[in-house]
Amino acid sequence: MTKRQTGALLLGCLAIGLLYGWTTASAILLEDDGYFIMAGFFAGAAHPPGYPTFILLLNTVMHLPWGSMAWKAHFASALCATVSCLLLTLCIHRITRSITAGLLAAAALAVSPIFWSQAQIADVYTLNVAIFLGLFYLGLQLEHAAPAIQVRLLYAIALLTGIGLANHWPLLVMASPGIVWLVWPQWRIALRHLFGLTVCLAIGLLPYLWMVWRTQQPIPFLFIGSIDSFEAFQRYVLREYYSVDSSSTATWDDRWLFIRFFLQSWTNQLTLPGWLLAMMGLAYGLRHHPRITQASLLSFLISAGLLLSVIHFNYDHLWRDVFSVYPLIPYALTALWLGIGLHAVFQKFPTRRTVILITATMAVIAAGTWRWPDHNLHHFDETARYANALLSPLPANSIVVTEGDVNTAVLGYYHLVEGLRPDITLVTRHGTLFNTTLLPLKLDRLAIQERIQALVEDRPEHVFFTNNYGRNPSRHWQNQGLAGTLKDAADLPPAFIPEHMAYLERLLLTEIHYPYYWWDMHQQTMRQRLCYLIGRYHRYPTAFSDYPALLKHCGQSFEGLVGFSEGRLFSGGYFSPAAMLHNGQLAASRLPPFARRQQKVAVLNIQSYALLGLGRYAEAKQLAEQSLLEQPGKSNAAHRYKQYADEKRLEESRRVVPGRGIEPPTY
């Protein structure tokens, strides 16, 4: 590579890095962002398999002297994404000897929507792509290297493989067949140096030992506590504690919807013209660079194929966004083919090279400009607003019991990392993540419930729950806005926290820009919660006198109808079953496409409960059974509705009619 080419490469990567650095947020984002930042800040263990390589990288980058801790963590992912683009350019240059084609393909990958999103958030996927492309580049170097250099390259491959397995081993293993294909011609050399290669692989895996050691330390954030045996380590790394990739209620329709989404996303990442050019590059590569292109195709097919066959979830917008990042390596390989395709076009039309170069460059700039509004999160601070609104007005030395990713990750980051309200104590409802003396990690479920109930009995006015806590039979959760306490009476006049209500009112009346479904889910949940409060305390005429703009919004959206209806159900009997059924049917007609399972269950349960009140027990049971198909767990209230409907139908079936004996009811 000439000095001019090297300069162009570094300048291009610098531009990509600046793009990511400017568009990322200084506040934390959603998904797993807060969890990873807390794990990196305390040098602890993230959720299984732990990702110790990425946690070490985060902890190192967080020592930079500028920026918030969230921005530094996002910068770590941006750095990995920039290195991925650098390595992609080097791979394309190694195949085609064209730095121009490599830079254009890398730029196209850099502004592709999913890759760009992962460069802005603290997560493991851009590091995983960088490690894979690093292995691919080392494999390319093997082919024409001298024997002594081949040995060094094999040692580097073994070391980098270990480092990658200590990051996200499932995705790297799925993509590894192409690397094996490149390395296979040197199997004899590898066999002669098997011991040394094994040692290098083991050195790369050392972050796992560091992770185990860190779980023994008294740090504030750990996923489930200390890893104190080989069996516990094995279960942790194999993700037995954290299985989110499959669902017992998912169907083949759900699988097909995700396959269709993957195919659409695959063609859209580099834009349709870019994808077509990549397919041309694949054909060109199979003809002119068969072994290398076969390796890339092998990694693509096996990685994508295994992902589509293994992942089995209830398809909705939330889980679609969660799993949309898994095929990031196949998307990077498509960008590799794009680079080969651009080189083929340059070769086909040498006299028009300048025109083609300008056209391709303008196309990449246009794609980046088009996607800029969705990915410019520079001013995003909604998570900080939420944490401040919830925590700031709470009494001194309060205890906050969190549940759900948004509540736990956001509140945990601002409390533990940014120092918001250091006097309070955060615990989770399931006894994980926050290592405190009030609720130590690794307690069983019964012990966790007993500890939480003891805290409530000791300090009832200072224990707040972010979600309904229905496990204390002598007390009832009273929502005060964004959180609530457990009260002795089931129905007291509402005592709202003004700061909580102001935040809910703003969220109800304002659309907040965030490019992925996570924020939509949070906003919908908060709107549903507010309308729940309005529904539950609607009979108190002065309850919402300070919030006149809120009432009219409860009937204008799906989440408003659901929240208002659920609030009426819990209002102590102050509701009309006929009106409730109407609201439930109206909510069902407004059910969003690919609604979350919880949303479907809520609509079905509202209608089932209303039908019970109207004495239409057969219809109520039918809807309850549909709800249980969506969510069969014991926490689903449809179990009680179904049982009640069966009991009432049995009572009616035993009615004795004179002269006719037992007459079954008519429904």
Give the integer mean of the pLDDT values.
85
Roughly what fraction of the amino acids lie in strands? Answer: under 5%
Q: What is the percent of helical residues?
A: 55-70%
Structural class: mainly alpha
What is the end-to-end distance? 82 Å
Integer-rounded radius of gyration: 28 Å
Q: How are the strands ordered across the major sheet? A: 3-2-5
According to DSSP, the number of beta strands is: 9
Total DSSP helices: 29
Sheet with the most strands? 3 strands, parallel
Quick rundown:
The protein has 667 residues and is mainly α. It has 29 helices and 9 strands.
Describe the model.
The chain is mainly alpha-helical and 667 residues long. Helices cover 63% and strands 4% of the residues. The protein has a 3-stranded parallel sheet, with helices on one face. Strands 1-4 form a two-stranded antiparallel ribbon. A two-stranded antiparallel ribbon has the order 6-7. Helix 2 runs parallel beside helix 21, helix 4 packs parallel to helix 7 (125-142) and helix 5 (99-110) runs parallel beside helix 19 (353-375). The longest helix has 29 residues, at 147-175. Residues 656-667 have low confidence and may be disordered.
